[in-house]
TrEMBL record:
<dbReference type="InterPro" id="IPR013525">
    <property type="entry name" value="ABC2_TM"/>
</dbReference>
<keyword id="KW-0813">Transport</keyword>
<feature type="transmembrane region" description="Helical">
    <location>
        <begin position="133"/>
        <end position="154"/>
    </location>
</feature>
<dbReference type="Pfam" id="PF01061">
    <property type="entry name" value="ABC2_membrane"/>
</dbReference>
<dbReference type="GO" id="GO:0043190">
    <property type="term" value="C:ATP-binding cassette (ABC) transporter complex"/>
</dbReference>
<dbReference type="GO" id="GO:0140359">
    <property type="term" value="F:ABC-type transporter activity"/>
</dbReference>
<feature type="transmembrane region" description="Helical">
    <location>
        <begin position="95"/>
        <end position="121"/>
    </location>
</feature>
<feature type="transmembrane region" description="Helical">
    <location>
        <begin position="24"/>
        <end position="42"/>
    </location>
</feature>
<dbReference type="InterPro" id="IPR000412">
    <property type="entry name" value="ABC_2_transport"/>
</dbReference>
<keyword id="KW-1133">Transmembrane helix</keyword>
<keyword id="KW-0812">Transmembrane</keyword>
<feature type="domain" description="ABC transmembrane type-2">
    <location>
        <begin position="18"/>
        <end position="243"/>
    </location>
</feature>
<feature type="transmembrane region" description="Helical">
    <location>
        <begin position="222"/>
        <end position="240"/>
    </location>
</feature>
<feature type="transmembrane region" description="Helical">
    <location>
        <begin position="54"/>
        <end position="74"/>
    </location>
</feature>
<keyword id="KW-0046">Antibiotic resistance</keyword>
<comment type="similarity">
    <text>Belongs to the ABC-2 integral membrane protein family.</text>
</comment>
<dbReference type="InterPro" id="IPR047817">
    <property type="entry name" value="ABC2_TM_bact-type"/>
</dbReference>
Length: 245
């Protein structure tokens, strides 16, 4: 792995995104719009939005980043761009880290927008620090990115990449504690939820929202999310094909 090559890949991805205004708008604005829709839905149910608003800050960025990253990476492979890139002195991890770094920068902007709107426009009630909530939201966006990079290795077409979303993300959405607290799940499902990354993403956001902070539980959940990010990058590098299928 070469930092110069990694940064070159990140710069290339950012240049592509700068020309794709629709994708950038979706990445940055869609989570905030979805959060606003949920606030509107529960406007006449006091306390409901405050209960689910925090976890949604983990769920929406992760899902959106997963979809965009998996499709974009697969397009690089099916178009032959990836094969041409690998004729250069570039490791597979350089490619994946470059992508992850580029989308991490997008995740920073995304988290700033969605957290600011949630706290200051929608009056989401949290007891913790806004900056800690933002850090966790960024981690959750990067988590979706790395899971998308990993999942794209198992798809042959863009349609299959989109199909990976319900296969990979929907079970996590159902078991992460958003709909039913994880400690109330049946034993087997609770065990499954313990090995799913989105469970810890939701726990980290919920912990900050309750005021626990990084030093009182939320930090350990955030570290687990970071561990899943690293694992997804390593597995992605191991499964990424150098030649177009």
């Amino acid at each position: 792995m070469t930092p110069r090559v990694t940064l070159a890949v990140a710069a290339r991805v950012l240049a592509q995104l700068r020309r794709d205004h629709r994708t950038v708008a979706m990445l940055i604005l869609l989570p905030a719009l979805l959060i606003t829709l949920m606030w509107w839905m529960f406007h006449d149910s006091p306390g409901t939005f405050d209960r689910i608003g925090g976890p949604l800050l983990a769920v929406f960025p992760s899902i959106i980043m997963f979809i965009v990253t998996s499709v974009a990476t697969l397009r690089e492979r099916t178009s032959g761009t990836l094969s041409r890139l690998f004729t250069l002195p570039m490791a597979k991890l350089d490619f994946l880290l470059g992508y992850a770094l580029a989308f991490a920068l997008i995740a920073v902007v995304q988290a700033t927008v969605v957290v600011s709107i949630s706290l200051y426009a929608l009056n989401l009630d949290i007891r913790g620090s806004a900056w800690q909530l933002g850090v966790v939201a960024v981690l959750d966006g990067v988590l979706g990115t790395t899971l998308g990079l990993f999942a794209s290795a198992f798809a042959a077409t863009e349609f299959q990449a989109v199909q990976m979303m319900p296969a990979v993300m929907i079970p996590q959405l159902l078991l992460c504690g958003l709909l039913v607290p994880r400690d109330r799940l049946p034993g087997v499902l609770h065990g499954v939820s313990d090995v799913l990354p989105l469970s810890y993403a939701v726990d980290a956001v919920s912990g900050v929202a309750r005021g626990n902070g990084f030093g009182a539980g939320a930090g350990s959940d955030a570290l687990v999310v970071a561990g899943f990010i690293v694992a997804a990058l390593v597995l992605g590098a191991a499964t990424l094909k150098r030649r177009t299928a």
